[in-house]
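Narrative summary of target 7.
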Amino acid sequence: MPEPILIAHRGASGARPEHTLAAYELAARLGADYLEPDLVATADGHLVARHENEIGTTTDIADHPEFADRVTSKVIDGHTVTGWFTEDLTLAELRTLCCRERLPDLRPGNTAYDGQFTVPTLEEILDLRARLSTELGRDLGVYLETKHPTHFRDIGLPLEEPLVAALESAGLNEDGAPVFLQSFELGNLITLRRDLGARAPLVFLAEAAGSPYDFVAAQDPRTFADLLTPAGLAELARWVDGIGPHKDLVIAPGADGTLGEPTSLVTDAHEAGLVVHPWTFRRENAFLPTDLRGAGGDPGRGGGAGTADGPGTTGDPAAAGDVVAEIRAHLAAGVDGFFTDHTDLGVQARAQPGSG
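Modeled conformation, tokenized:
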């Protein structure tokens, strides 16, 4: 693999509806090193790719009267969520649905593909990886995230066992296979390696604020910030091989929302023996520092760190800005890889690294 690695976040999700085979295939053809599926479970225990187990915004389930009685409210990781959930549908039922663009206001062009693709299974993604690796003449990787693992284990649909079984079946649960496993929960990663024999490198994901949900559930007071101190990183290194921090933890934004200066996180993580793969680089103004926003943006309004999907504030959030410069700044800060929705722009940034 080239270094640093380019991770196609949910596929080429800037150009196709996320977590579809079409998005993954396009990312591979554009030059991604790794395809990044998020995994959730169906009622009958199949792992499928959705960013969330609630699928009201990423499929057409609301248009299916036969599933009208499945809408419900649940507490997921401490937050009440209302909608339709993968764990309440069998795989056969889920396959009657079609995918939709999750961010239609920011990516109206992607809505042209609404209704064309079904929700893929993990096995289909691994088969696609194998086929494209042969066709493209390079060992394409997968970077698999377990979503809400505490929730799924609590309802009797654990993600870890079927994940390891699928990797075994595909011949990918072995040293050197092009696989990473990632999670926002540490206990889930420990289970994968210590109890289930997962051989892939493990990456602990970190939000810009808050705490891992498994810590919250166990009344462990430590936060993501605590785990990213030098002492916390040394503890993480007992169990994992890398960290996947929010990009603002690598380069902290200025008070005015502009691209700031690198923190010590990359250096501290490297000293602990951990690789660093920040997320997520997107070209839309809504997700960019104020000084990198394109025409229509309002440089006077700060963005803030946000959450896994929380955009910053901007006058024209859908306008394209200079994400290449943002990626280059992080490459100059020493990261070992990066997540992006725009594979082609990631390839461009990596080909010409620098601070912008």
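The chain is about 25% helix and 15% strand.
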